[in-house]
Each structure stands twice: as structure tokens, then as C-alpha cells.
């Protein structure tokens, strides 16, 4: 049903094959890194934004998470998550279909951790996402691309990005550039945002906004300036 649309490889030893399956999201060292920094997942509640195909959900349940609510906005990715839930018996994961920004706005539930891997750079208003996530938990893990003019001008098409510009949201001032998905919108497995464009923040702006939101401890890792899709990093922030 999803042949040619998978981003994730299945776990080694599962004997399952996906196409093209280029990302090892079911055996992701970034989640192992996160587990070490937060002292493990055992007994933890997690709100996962954009689970894609359930690889990180699988890892967190395997490592003892008590409850995972994972909100996915892409309908075909959501259906793949349901397949993964059945295949691996993810009985402590609740996959929801919908806009996770609206979920953050409306839900009163709090969690031990918000995991937002691969979603910040798909946002029209990324600072709103950071602000809403900060209200749901005292710990936040991000993996995101960020805007770096020197790198992107040398590696990406000239039509893909606008200039870095000052912006603000709810009194939080930051810098971001418009990103355009271009031909990626034509792939059936496209897993970006709901609009044809998004905003990429600078690394400095991400760190500055987190500081203003009260995250006093921020650890960064997996910084990858030569990532094929643009500079990226992981960070774990807590109060």
C-alpha cells in the first residue's frame, strides 16, 4: 500500500523491508542520546509531535515510556504509524491524526517531555510551536534544520530560500527565512508542512527563544552543517 513512500528503515532483525527506507529512525542514536540526558524513559509520559512512521515511538516504548501521545498531521504518515503500531504491539502509544499546533492550544494535559523531531522547520510560525511546547512540559527535545546563509547559498537552489529577516511572535523577536518545498511537493511520500513554504530560524534565534521561554539548561548535539537538506542539530532543553 505504501511501496515507494517510506522514509524509515525497519529495525534490524525484523526481516521487514521498506522502500526507499533511507532513514534509520527505529534505531536512532538521537533518541538514545536523549534517553541518556533525561535519565531514561521508564515511567515517563511523552508528547511526540510529528511521529512520521512511528520509529521514535517504537524506541521510547521499548525503553520503558509509560505513555506516548503522538500527533501526526499527514494522513498517509498517520496510516503508516497505525501499521507500525499493529506490527510491533505499541500498546502504550496513542497515535492521533490532526494539527498538533491545535492540539497544543486546546489540550490541558502536561507531559514529562515534548519530543519535536523534524517538525520545527516545517512551521509557518515556529516560535508559536516553541511557546506552546514550553507550556506542556519542562523538558523539550528538538531535532531541526536551521538557517545558515553561507551554507545554504552554497548548497541549495537559489529559489529555495528567501533572506533572513527579523520577525516577532507574541513579543518574542527572532530571525527566520522563508523556505520553499519546490519539487518535493510532488512526491507521494512528502512529509513536510501543510503549506508550500515554511520558516527556518537561525540557530542563534532558536537558542535565544528557548532562553526567554525559561529553559535554563540546553545541551546540543548531532550538529551537521553538511546535511544534504541543510544545517541541522539536536538539542535537549529543560527547566
CATH class annotation: Alpha Beta
Which term fits the overall shape?
globular
Mean pLDDT: 94
Number of domains: 1
Low-confidence stretches: none
Number of helical stretches of at least 4 residues: 7
Find the CATH topology: Rossmann fold
Task: Give the helices and strands as they follow along the chain.
Answer: EEHEHEHEHEHEHEEEHEE
Placed side by side, the strands forming the largest sheet appear as: 5-4-3-6-7-12-11
CATH architecture: 3-Layer(aba) Sandwich
Structural class: alpha/beta
Largest sheet: 7 strands, mixed
Share of helix among residues? 25-40%
The name of the CATH superfamily reads Vaccinia Virus protein VP39
Write up this protein:
The structure is a single chain. By secondary structure, the chain is α/β, with parallel strands linked by helices. The mean pLDDT is 94. It has one domain: Rossmann fold (3-Layer(aba) Sandwich). It has helices spanning 29-38, 55-62, 75-88, 100-106, 126-136, 149-155, 203-212, and strands at 6-8, 20-23, 45-49, 67-72, 93-97, 113-117, 139-145, 165-169, 172-180, 197-201, 217-224, 232-238. It is built from seven helices and twelve strands. The chain starts with 5 loop residues before the first strand and ends with a strand. The radius of gyration is 17 Å and the shape is globular. Helix 5 (126-136) links the parallel strand 6 and strand 7 (139-145). The longest helix has 14 residues, at 75-88.
Amino acid at each position: 500500500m505504501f511501496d515507494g513512500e517510506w522514509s524509515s528503515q525497519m529495525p534490524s532483525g525484523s526481516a521487514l523491508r521498506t522502500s526507499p527506507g533511507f532513514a534509520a529512525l527505529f534505531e536512532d542514536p538521537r533518541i538514545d542520546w536523549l534517553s541518556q540526558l533525561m535519565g531514561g524513559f521508564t515511567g515517563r509520559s511523552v508528547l511526540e509531535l510529528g511521529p512520521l512512521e512511528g520509529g521514535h515511538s517504537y524506541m521510547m516504548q521499548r525503553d520503558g515510556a509509560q505513555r506516548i501521545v503522538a500527533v501526526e498531521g499527514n494522513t498517509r504518515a498517520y496510516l503508516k504509524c497505525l501499521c507500525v503500531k499493529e506490527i510491533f504491539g505499541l500498546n502504550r502509544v496513542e497515535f492521533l491524526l490532526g494539527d498538533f499546533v491545535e492540539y497544543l492550544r486546546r489540550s490541558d494535559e502536561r507531559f514529562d517531555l515534548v519530543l519535536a523531531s523534524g517538525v520545527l522547520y516545517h512551521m509557518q510560525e515556529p516560535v508559536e510551536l516553541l511557546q506552546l511546547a514550553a507550556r506542556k512540559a519542562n523538558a523539550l527535545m528538538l531535532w531541526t534544520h536551521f538557517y545558515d546563509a553561507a551554507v545554504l547559498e552554497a548548497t541549495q537552489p537559489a529559489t529555495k530560500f528567501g533572506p533572513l529577516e527579523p520577525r516577532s511572535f507574541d513579543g518574542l523577536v527572532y530571525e527566520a527565512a522563508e523556505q520553499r518545498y519546490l519539487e518535493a511537493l510532488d512526491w507521494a511520500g512528502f512529509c513536510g508542512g501543510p503549506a508550500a513554504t515554511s520558516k527556518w530560524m537561525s540557530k542563534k534565534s532558536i537558542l535565544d527563544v528557548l532562553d526567554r521561554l525559561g529553559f535554563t539548561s540546553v545541551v546540543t548535539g548531532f550538529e551537521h552543517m553538511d546535511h544534504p537538506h541543510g544545517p541541522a542539530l539536536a538539542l535537549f532543553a529543560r527547566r
